[in-house]
Design the sequence.
């Protein structure tokens, strides 16, 4: 695994600025992607990897321009295929810290197949899924996460499709790490990116991102000052799930297996009654419920919702190769060429 | 060994084993060919699998065949027509009779010629009873009942007993060609080591078949095929797919890089992935992807990260890889794309051979997207050309397409094993820490950029599919820059011609007819041309392995001949490519689209026709 930068006192600690490339940023002013970029650069500066150990790999879309703005190894690939390309890079060089950047169209439409299989294999990488519920780069067509009935350039009469919930797709594919953040919450995104990077295996980080041009305000209920505190719950492992402007709302388990929003102090509810988040439990049931919560019935859950210990594909791959090498009599191509049935012509 | 009096010396013999897919014919054929190779004959083999794995038993669709050709001289093809056909059931006879030489020998399992089987095979009457086979040396053997009789006290169950019947026919054929049984006996002992009863049974049946043939004097005379005069060395039998896998691995070792293969199974390319997957002991990383697109994409990711990366597939899979192949061209990353061609568009003829992906390989990508293309021509030289494809990819920092086909991929032949030190070292232009590095800066001779592997300090950079400014690698839509970059990409592939051998012609420089071929038709074309040359016909052969770019002397070679005929298992794709490249030269064509290789007979007929014109 990569050495830490901090093991020598002579090496200066990196700052977010060290990860800024000299490329002109072409995202629209006000695009949520800017905030995410800041958060990721901050997180990288905080982490114990060397700059050259990061590989940032993206597909195609506005969000996928991300690698150009990072001063690390970067690869801007083709639409939908970033997960596969990142998987190959990680297997080739398991010491790299691989971060994949994709939009909702990139990851879940054209790249849906690669997305679920990367998660299923549990390749040790972080997938940052920028969810603006629209196609930005191609100028405003609906995406697999667009709300049912949404009017866009390719759905002038409203979509007749049901959207994916990325969290459900990830958990359905066996995800061991799922977190959700918001583009404008730099602090939370930074913390989540670090947690995702620490996790061994595929980490899915869904960042709710605002496309100011084609889907402005898609996440307004959780971004507008007036509503945001009542419609977001920031969850943390080991902490009770309390939220709201007055910090008096909480989540409890209802009798029918559904979560229920309660107010502390009403109907005899105390802080002790509120559910405490367990991100590390293997059983995905509660994580599924939490990540599926939607406003206005529920607050939208942000934070690390699921973080379960696991062994990654690349670790198993390296181990298997070591194990077979140890027991095989074939140590080189010459050995192989001369193995099995051969005969000599004098 | 033999007690026969009359021995007939033969230059070469073709045997075709055929039966239901469960009859063990592939194994029988492999055993006979291994024994012949050990004896010192040159051998070429070709298995012919049914397209449907679960075709109903006893039907023509379920017939599995294995043809082998062995001889005293160099053998280049598995042979057109068989001297001996082994038919384990009526369907096998029905499917293969047309491939038996006039007055050839046919061995049938008489027990299987029941009314039911005859009906399944589509026979209206029993061919063993009417005079349809009168011109052949027909040997009727009750293989099933004799095997059963032989093993009645073996302690094996009926099913296991019946499984041994292929050994009976193998024994018979061993007697006919005066071959020792010991190689197969060793094989049986090794294969069934854990099941002593099975070892005894198989050996017993093998001998029984041998003795049966001797008793009935299956042939009025004995064939003898003397050993071939072949080069000294250590040999093994190898199939094209195995040789391809090994060639890729050899290249990785000579380049001092780890090998990564991202792939998705598809007939007839699957064995390459399987062979590589078995080689964890040599550190090979195989990634069975979710589809062909992911196959090539994982390989591109691995190449970006510093492994020697390959992806393997067949025609429809190559179509899926197209977009990503373009990314590899844009990012100038080394990658080998192996395409084992099969028959037809779409799913077509998955188990049959064809050469019709040539233009897909040369041109089948979006944009002007040049990529070197090379083709292997025999099962064993798949090793050499896989190595060559890898060498070019790594030395020139480019994706390369290697074309093989179902015929050479599944076919096998003896191969003189090289030592690794005989193979050239491959040096990829890897940038080092402290180097003055720009992502698209080029070295002079090959115009290749350098490979800065993630993890190398100070060489952080970004690549991608968008057009870049040469040198610095910044994204650019400047019209003039795109022209410059397009020209460079073209030139880079042209420069590969400086790093490949020139074209050699078999035969005279001034022959009346030049036969031109490429890839897997090599054996048939060589045999046909050699045979005509022996008859003092004025004919030569130019066979291509380097397709794009062509060898530097191609124009000069082709320019020497008045009549050129391009022979391909497609509708004329190489001919079309040559015509557009050499517009002053006239090309005749000989093409075939039957999912089958050429026959030497048909080629000679066509060449004679051409030789006689005017
Ligand atoms: C093979 C292919 N199909 C389609 C496109 C066009 N295309 C580019 S980006 C995109 C969708 C982008 O949406 P998303 O992934 O959500 O990213 P965003 O731009 O919103 O960040 C599409 C359809 C393409 N580049 N390649
Ligand atoms: S179109 Fe939308 S997603 Fe794309 S850069 Fe502009 S605001 Fe961002």
Sequence:
């Amino acid at each position: 695994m990569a050495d830490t930068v901090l093991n020598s006192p002579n090496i200066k600690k990196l700052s977010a600025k060290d990860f800024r490339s000299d490329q002109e940023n072409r995202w629209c002013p006000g695009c949520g992607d800017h905030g995410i970029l800041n958060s990721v650069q901050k997180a990288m500066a905080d982490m114990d990897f060397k700059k050259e150990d990061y590989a940032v790999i993206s597909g195609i879309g506005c969000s996928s321009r991300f690698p150009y703005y990072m001063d690390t190894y970067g690869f801007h690939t083709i639409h939908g295929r970033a997960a596969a390309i990142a998987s190959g890079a990680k297997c080739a060089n398991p010491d790299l810290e691989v971060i994949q950047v994709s939009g909702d169209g990139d990851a879940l439409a054209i790249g849906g197949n690669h997305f679920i299989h990367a998660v299923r294999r549990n390749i040790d990488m972080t997938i940052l899924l920028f969810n603006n519920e629209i196609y930005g780069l191609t100028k405003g067509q609906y995406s697999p996460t667009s709300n049912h009935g949404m009017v866009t350039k390719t759905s002038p009469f409203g979509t007749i499709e049901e959207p994916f919930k990325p969290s459900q797709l990830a958990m359905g594919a066996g995800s061991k790490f799922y977190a959700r953040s918001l583009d404008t919450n730099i602090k939370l995104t930074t913390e989540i990116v670090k947690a995702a990077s620490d996790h061994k295996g595929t980490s899915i980080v869904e960042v709710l991102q605002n496309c100011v041009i084609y889907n402005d305000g898609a996440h307004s209920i959780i971004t507008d000052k007036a509503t945001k505190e009542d419609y977001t719950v920031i969850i943390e492992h080991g902490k009770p799930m309390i939220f709201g402007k007055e910090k008096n709302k909480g989540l409890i388990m209802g009798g029918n297996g559904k979560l229920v929003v309660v107010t502390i102090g009403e109907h005899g509810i105390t802080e002790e009654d509120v559910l405490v988040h367990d991100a590390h439990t293997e059983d995905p049931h509660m994580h599924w419920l939490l990540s599926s919560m939607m406003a206005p019935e529920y607050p939208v859950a942000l934070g690390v919702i699921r973080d379960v210990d696991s062994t990654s594909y690349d670790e198993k791959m390296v181990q298997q190769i070591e194990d077979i090498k140890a027991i095989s009599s074939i140590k080189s191509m010459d050995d192989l060429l001369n193995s099995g049935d051969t005969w000599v012509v004098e | 060994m033999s007690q026969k009096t009359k021995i007939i010396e033969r230059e070469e013999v073709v045997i075709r084993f055929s039966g239901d897919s469960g009859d063990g014919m592939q194994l029988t054929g492999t055993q006979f060919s291994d024994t012949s190779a050990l004896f010192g004959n040159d051998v070429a083999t070709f298995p012919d699998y049914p397209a449907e794995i679960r075709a109903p038993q006893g039907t023509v669709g379920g017939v599995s065949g294995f043809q082998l050709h062995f001889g005293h001289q160099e053998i280049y093809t598995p042979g057109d027509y068989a001297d001996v056909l082994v038919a384990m059931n009526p369907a096998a006879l029905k499917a293969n009779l047309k491939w038996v030489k006039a007055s050839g020998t046919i061995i049938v399992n008489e027990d299987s010629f029941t009314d039911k089987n005859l009906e399944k095979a589509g026979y209206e009457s029993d061919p063993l009873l009417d005079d349809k086979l009168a011109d052949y040396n027909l040997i009727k053997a009750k293989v099933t009942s004799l095997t059963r009789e032989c093993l009645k006290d073996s302690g094996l169950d009926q099913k296991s007993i019946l499984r041994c019947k292929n050994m009976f026919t193998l024994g018979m054929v061993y007697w006919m060609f005066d071959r020792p049984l010991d190689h197969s006996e060793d094989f049986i002992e090794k294969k069934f080591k854990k099941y002593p009863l099975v070892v005894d049974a198989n050996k017993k049946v093998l001998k029984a078949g041998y003795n049966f043939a001797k008793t009935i004097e299956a042939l009025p005379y004995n064939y003898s095929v003397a050993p071939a005069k072949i080069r000294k060395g250590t040999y093994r039998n190898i199939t094209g797919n195995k040789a391809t896998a090994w060639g890729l691995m050899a290249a990785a070792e000579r380049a001092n890089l780890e090998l990564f293969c991202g792939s998705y199974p598809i007939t007839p390319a699957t064995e390459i992935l399987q062979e590589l997957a078995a080689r964890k002991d040599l550190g090979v990383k195989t990634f069975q992807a979710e589809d062909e697109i992911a196959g090539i994409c994982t390989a591109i990711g691995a190449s970006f990260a510093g492994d020697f990366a390959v992806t393997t597939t067949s025609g429809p899979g190559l179509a899926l890889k197209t977009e990503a192949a373009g990314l590899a061209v844009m990012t100038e990353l080394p990658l080998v794309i192996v395409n084992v061609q099969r028959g037809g568009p779409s799913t077509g003829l998955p188990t049959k051979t064809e050469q019709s992906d040539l233009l897909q390989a040369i041109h089948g990508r979006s944009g002007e997207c040049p990529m070197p293309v090379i083709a292997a021509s025999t099962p064993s030289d798949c090793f050499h050309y896989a190595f060559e494809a890898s060498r070019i990819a790594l030395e020139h920092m480019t994706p390369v397409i290697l074309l093989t086909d179902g015929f050479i991929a599944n076919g096998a032949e003896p191969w003189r094993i090289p030592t690794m030190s005989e193979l050239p070292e491959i040096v990829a232009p890897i940038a080092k820490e402290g180097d003055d590095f720009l992502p698209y800066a080029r070295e002079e001779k090959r115009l290749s950029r350098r490979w800065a592997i993630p993890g190398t300090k100070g060489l952080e950079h970004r690549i991608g599919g968008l057009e870049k400014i040469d040198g610095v690698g910044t994204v650019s839509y400047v019209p003039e820059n795109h022209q410059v970059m397009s020209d460079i990409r073209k030139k880079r592939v042209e420069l590969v011609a400086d790093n490949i051998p020139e074209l050699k012609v078999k035969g005279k420089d001034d022959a009346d007819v030049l036969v031109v071929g490429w890839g897997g038709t090599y054996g048939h074309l060589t045999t046909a041309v050699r045979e005509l040359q022996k008859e003092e016909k004025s004919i030569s052969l130019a066979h291509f392995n380097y397709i794009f770019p062509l060898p530097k002397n191609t124009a000069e070679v082709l320019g020497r001949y008045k009549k050129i005929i391009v022979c391909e298992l497609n509708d004329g794709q190489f001919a079309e490519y040559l015509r557009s490249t050499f517009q002053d030269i006239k090309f005749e064509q000989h093409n075939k689209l039957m999912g089958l290789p050429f026959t030497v007979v048909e080629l000679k007929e066509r060449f004679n026709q051409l030789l006689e014109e005017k």
User: Anything to note?
Assistant: Confidence is low (pLDDT under 50) at residues 1-10 of chain A. The radius of gyration of chain A is 23 Å. The first helix of chain A runs from residue 33 to 46.
